[in-house]
């Protein structure tokens, strides 16, 4: 098996005022919280958004593992809809001491390049900052962070920085090169 060098960048905001919101795209684009934990829907979003950029770490999760994750207090999934069709999502995962990770963020390939991503990231980041307001018992958010890597879309880093995220760590690691799984086997050419 061939290995590839993958660069991972970690970025953060340390105050709500760091957020530089993008303008809302034209048309009927809505960002809605998926309030009912649904392993089926979350796996659909994960596979559909990450299938062409080699998101594979959750593909082997069982239904029970998905449910366990989604039912953790404070885990939220915010979904972008373009005229009623799911276009992408952002998943928020609280950590200790008021730290919230934007664990997953992205758009289904057909919806990229329509100015939805900046708007979705802006809304998701704002919801990370006010997460404790919806979840009694969680600490007030003091830091929002995320990571992106060289396997992600060409505009990912630019979008994060334009929304006010600042780089705080860079790592380069060798990873096995895996085939692009697509949202279902064989959806994308290898």
From TrEMBL:
Q: InterPro entries, from UniProt?
A: Acyl_CoA_acyltransferase, GNAT_dom
Ranges where the N-acetyltransferase domain occurs: 29-190
Superkingdom, taxonomy of origin:
Bacteria
Entry-linked Gene3D superfamilies: 3.40.630.30
What Pfam families does the record tag this protein with?
Answer: Acetyltransf_1
Q: Which PROSITE patterns match?
A: GNAT (PS51186)
This protein is called GNAT family N-acetyltransferase
What species does this protein belong to? Streptomyces hyderabadensis
